Amino acid sequence: MGIENARIKRTPKAPRQEMPCQLPLARRRNFCEVAIGFTEEQALLEAQRCIDCNNPTCITGCPVEINIPHFIRSILQKDYLGAADIIREKNSLPAICGRVCQQEDQCERRCVNGIKGTPVAIGRLERFVADFQIDRGLFPSPLIARPTGKKVALVGSGPAALTAAGDLVRLGHRATVFEALHKLGGVLAYGIPEFRLPKSIVATEIRQLENIGVEFLTSVVIGKTETVDELLDEEGFDAVFLATGAGLPFFLNLPGENLAGIYSANEFLTRVNLMNAYKFPEYDTPVRVGKRVAVLGAGNTAMDAARVALRLGPEKVYMVYRRSRPEVPARAEELQHAEEEGIEFMFLSNPTRFFGDTRGWVNGMEVVDMELGENDESGRRKALPIKGSEHSFDVDTVIVAVGQGPNPLIQSTTLGLKTNKWGNIITDEAGLTSRPGLYAGGDVVRGGSTVILAMGDGKRAAKAINEYLTGRTH
Fold it and tell me: What pTM value is reported for the model?
């Protein structure tokens, strides 16, 4: 390996490879994937930028601790399947992470190349090798430990639960995933648009988990169909992992907010992504947007909602955000794509009320201009209203994307489960809740967060559950 590595060409000062994308005028009217993916030539050129440093801080920046220099080395040797296999040792969902993981805030932020230049495009290389593997259907057969006879229930089928389930099966336990909806994937299925994460990719990654022994049950609402206590006391499960996400939308409680045509981003994205409203009338899920759409907020969910709405054919899509462009919390790449596609940003604006027609449908909204003051508790500058600056404009649809919290169903039906004031489940660092054998992770603990942080929670919880089931801790 040392001789082979010495022969590998390294060009750390070469420019970072740009991701090929659909042209904005084309993609703003279709739901096909925006980012096309690296060619083999681009992947090799980008991989050559990695210096294979002695202290690979990129690994510590990855919540699931992928051996990044090792998989990049395999790319340079043109062993793309080997590179994918290295990733899958730690990450059950590489094709998903390569598309939606915020690498710029994780592994790439720790990349040594980024100190004086631009970091290696680790996420794009991950996507390249994951897609190479999927296209050929050649997946590794992971080592599965001897059966322990222990059963674990995982509630929810988003990234935290999928990660934990895969790890638990490899450790020899039976893992059963309970999903309330009719399709698997959690936020990967209902929240992230097709043009950012094709649902075929999600289905393929889930199928690999099924192939190694994970059991999936849909249309089972834990907390209603059966409770967590019943899973533990009557159904024979030895441990439970709660990963139900943050699907309860927040609203602004403004006058007129109950008018028809005002959606939460969760409802709007679920209609389009999970129920295929963008294919109406082929699918019987209509969604009305009219000529002018206003999206309130500027996080990743708001960005997704605005870009989805644009593809449904309105004349205008506005994003109304109370702070300025530098404070936008969404990924820089998503903000850039939205601007390229023609989303109109109303920075330093805050809604104050909504107007409706005689039928009860929204037809306008009032906003007030804002200015930035001192930093608030989040570290961002406070947005303060400018007195007398209120003005109105016409809208046919409003999508509220100002945050979300956990659905309280499980918390209210599970004895002795402690939560914080926002309803998030309280856990220790390993994911253990206030009850022995009951663990939690992902957005139900963190609030709205990221896919890769949820996956990190799933890995830590799987390790802790294994130790609990084998009598080594707790």
Answer: 0.93
